[in-house]
Amino acid sequence: MIAKNQVPAMSCGERCNALKLSLLSVMCGASLFVASPFATLWSVCHAMQTRDSATLSHEINWRALNGSIKQQALGSILRPARDELPDFGSSFARTAVSNAVDVAVTPVNLPAIVDQTMPDIGPDTTDDGAVASADRFALLRHAHAHFLSPSTFEADIRLPGHLHETPLRITMKIQSWHWKVTDVAFPRAVEPAPASTPLMEASAAPSHA
User: Fold this and answer.
1) Which residues contact residue 97 at a Cβ distance below 8 angstroms, ignoring those fewer than 6 apart?
2) What is the pLDDT of residue 199?
3) How far is CA 126 from the centre of its chain?
4) What do you get for the CA distance between the two ends of the chain, in Å?
5) Which of 45, 110, 167, 175 could form a disulfide with 156 if both were Cys (CB 3.0 to 4.6 A apart)?
6) H/E stretch holding 154
7) What 3-state class would DSSP assign to 178?
8) In what side-by-side order are the strands of the sheet with 144-149?
9) Long-range contacts of 98-101 (CB under 8 A, 24+ apart)
10) 144: which strand partners?
11) Which residues contact 61 (CB under 8 A, 6 or more apart)?
């Protein structure tokens, strides 16, 4: 007689089926996790095109993004004049840039800013064969994306007309169980590597001493 609380032993076939189901669940979960930042990136791109400010508000961490843009703007302004700009001038520049970014970079204004700063992608624009479509979604097909950590994702997008500059870099992080854009690094000129100078020079000419 089998005790009431005794669980019947699983057969070999049942154990194999349960193991397969568990592995399938893990694989599906991993696939969804890997695909999730790409889905968010696609959603942001679509929201930019359709001027969907509600989606942009949800998909972007605006405080982090504004801070990133402020740092880049201040770096481009203060770096060339750091030895010439007095302290009060530097403080004024920081305040002016901070206020300008706070006013301009919003879910409503961002698509218009991107339209003004991002070059048009025409059907004849084939920089190195990278992009040959008027649709900006084509950019995502040529993005180099990778995980920096399980909670940080980065995508580098080479923009037409900026072949000699760094790519547009978009960083996303998991916040409140959702991927959000936290940083955007705009293209900048690549500084050439300094030329190496020989430590010693020797002449093979015979001496006439």
Assistant:
1) 70, 73, 74, 77
2) 47
3) 22
4) 115
5) 167
6) strand 152-157
7) strand
8) 144-149, 152-157, 168-175, 178-185
9) 98/70, 100/73, 101/66, 101/69, 101/70, 101/73
10) 156
11) 173, 175, 180, 181, 182
**Nearest one of 166, 163, 171, 170 to 187, comparing CA atoms:** 166
Q: What are phi and psi of 195, to 5 degrees?
A: -70, 135
pLDDT in tens, 104-121: 888 888 888 777 766 554
Lowest mean pLDDT among 6-20, 61-75, 190-204: 190-204
Backbone angles phi, psi at 63, to 5 degrees: -65, -45
Residue 44: helix, strand or coil by DSSP? helix
pLDDT at 69 over 80: yes
Instruction: Name the residue with tokens 């049942």.
Output: 14
Give the count of beta carbons closer than 10 Å to the beta carbon of residue 36.
15
Identify whether the C-beta of residue 169 lies closer than 8 Å to the C-beta of residue 185.
yes
Buried-exposed string 124-136: b where 16+ CB fall within 10 A, e elsewhere: eeeeeebbeeeeb
**Residue-level length of the chain:** 209
Nearest 5 degrees, angle CA 39-CA 41-CA 46? 95
pLDDT at residue 73, rounded to an integer: 81
Residue 183 banded pLDDT, cuts 50, 70, 90:
very high
Side chain identity at 12, as an amino acid letter? Answer: C
pLDDT (average), residues 174-197: 80
Determine the 3-state secondary structure of 70 from DSSP: helix
Largest CA distance in the chain: 115
